[in-house]
Amino acid sequence: MLKEERLKIILREINLHNKVLSTDLSELLQVSEDTVRRDLKELTEAGLVTKVHGGAISNSLVTPFQQQETVYGSEAKKVIAEKAISLLKKDQVILIEGGTTIQAFAKVTPKNLNLHFFTISPQTAIALAENNDAIVNTIGGRLHKDSYLHTGADVVNQLKDIRANICVLGANGFSAEQGLSDIDWEIVQAKKAMIQSSKTTVVMCISEKLNSNRKFIVSSIEQIDYLITELPADSPFLEPYRKVGVKIL
């Protein structure tokens, strides 16, 4: 594989998943971790990604308040956000995390529904507060430097006291076989607690991320009630998820 092709694949993986590990890229590309580290250094020096310990993260996480138009897959994420509005009802309690797809949703949530949001993401809290008249609560804990999410035992304990109508999650990896997955253990624990505290779980995921699995399982596919993508709900590509009982929007 030529270096230019390798760099394109690395850049796509980082923009798609927001964070990737050097070990995963090494396995994907069938090259040494030293080669991956050199590639990440080059992409960082070019201003395309940000190298962190063990891998790299998307610049959308480093500059969290950038305009949505500069985010990877922004048009698809806007479509997903608009679809998700149909699940909102008056007086609901909603658990919501972070990420660029979630922020797109936060920016279009309707007013006058007396919604009550709890979030582990300071970014999501600000987006909701700026664009909505809902009550917005942040669940505090240690701030995860790569994802800007609050994680840790304090977060999990606070989530146990909440009884939410809906939990809205983004996806790092999602498949009909493995369900929802992620690469960070602490984030996985926070998301598990969010699901356990909610009656209904909604996953927002651009279609490029579907049929991919990450190292740690957040939930089985049976725990997911709704999947929202930018594709038409009757798309044949989504048939594996319909077959296992997930409702598609």
TrEMBL record:
InterPro entries: ArsR-like_HTH, Carb_Metab_HTH_regulators, DeoR-like_C, DeoR_HTH, NagB/RpiA_transferase-like, Tscrpt_reg_HTH_DeoR_CS, WH-like_DNA-bd_sf, WH_DNA-bd_sf. Residues 3-58 form the HTH deoR-type domain. SMART domains: DeoRC (SM01134), HTH_DEOR (SM00420). It comes from the Bacteria. One of its GO terms (molecular function) is DNA binding. Keywords: DNA-binding, Repressor, Transcription, Transcription regulation. This is DeoR/GlpR transcriptional regulator. The lineage of its organism: Bacteria, Pseudomonadati, Bacteroidota, Sphingobacteriia, Sphingobacteriales.
